[in-house]
Amino acid sequence: MNRWLFALPVAALLLLGLLGAWRMLYPDKGEFERVSRAAPDFVFTLKDGGEIAFAPPPGGEPVIVNLFASWCGPCEAEHKYLMEIGAAHPGQLYGVLYKDKPENGEAFLARLGNPFTAVALDPEGKGGLDFGLTGVPETFVISGEGDIILHVDGPLDETSRQKISEALVAPRS
């Protein structure tokens, strides 16, 4: 009987460990909401000189901000959609080169085409963290008032390209 009493704390600890592992592997959705909140007021340095912030966005018009890197395979895969968005919405697509060297980003864009109005630099990833970035690529649509109205987690596809275009022209209440 006494041996069972010694096993109870071990069993309780094991049960708590399993519960903790389960919560880490399968977190509740929506615990960290990245849509319908203000864009970060982080000031980025532009690749070609100067600075830019997206809260509110330049010109007070809605913009798309795509965080990418030259070392990112999915960034290359989504690039054709960025080219389409840049052509359809001139002056509204901005890139943020995340944790990458400017010369690598420049070579990446020279090879695939540059759809961006301007490219901001985020060599240490601080601006990406302020956006709530979990990994490149990620794309945010920011209203003219500086609110994030759409977030695309991961590489763009035809459906997300269409949602971005709709978000740019949708009236805001």
Describe the model.
The longest helix has 24 residues, at 2-25. Strands 1-8-7-4-5-6-2-3 form an eight-stranded mixed β-sheet. Helix 2 packs parallel to helix 5 (158-169). It has five helices and eight strands; from the N terminus they run H-E-E-E-E-H-E-H-E-H-E-E-H. It has 173 residues and is an alpha+beta fold. Strand 2 (44-46) and strand 3 (51-52) form a beta hairpin. It has a single domain, classed as Glutaredoxin (3-Layer(aba) Sandwich).
Give a quick rundown of the structure:
The chain has 173 residues and is an alpha+beta fold.
CATH topology: Glutaredoxin
Enumerate the strands of the largest sheet in spatial order, edge to edge or round the barrel: 1-8-7-4-5-6-2-3
Beta fraction of the residues? 15-25%
Task: Give the C-alpha Rg.
Answer: 21 Å
The CATH superfamily title = Glutaredoxin
Name of the top-level CATH class: Alpha Beta
Order of helix and strand elements from N to C terminus: HEEEEHEHEHEEH
Measured between the Cα atoms of the first and last residue, the distance is: 69 Å
- The backbone outline, from C-alpha atoms, is elongated
Q: Kindly name the structural category.
A: alpha+beta
Largest sheet: 8 strands, mixed
Q: Quaternary state, please?
A: single chain
Total number of domains: 1
Count of DSSP strands: 8
Compile the SSE list and pairings.
Elements: H1 2-25, E1 37-38, E2 44-46, E3 51-52, E4 63-68, H2 73-88, E5 93-98, H3 102-112, E6 118-122, H4 126-131, E7 138-142, E8 147-153, H5 158-169
Parallel strand pairs: 4-5, 5-6
Antiparallel strand pairs: 1-8, 2-3, 2-6, 4-7, 7-8
Helix pairs in contact: 2-5
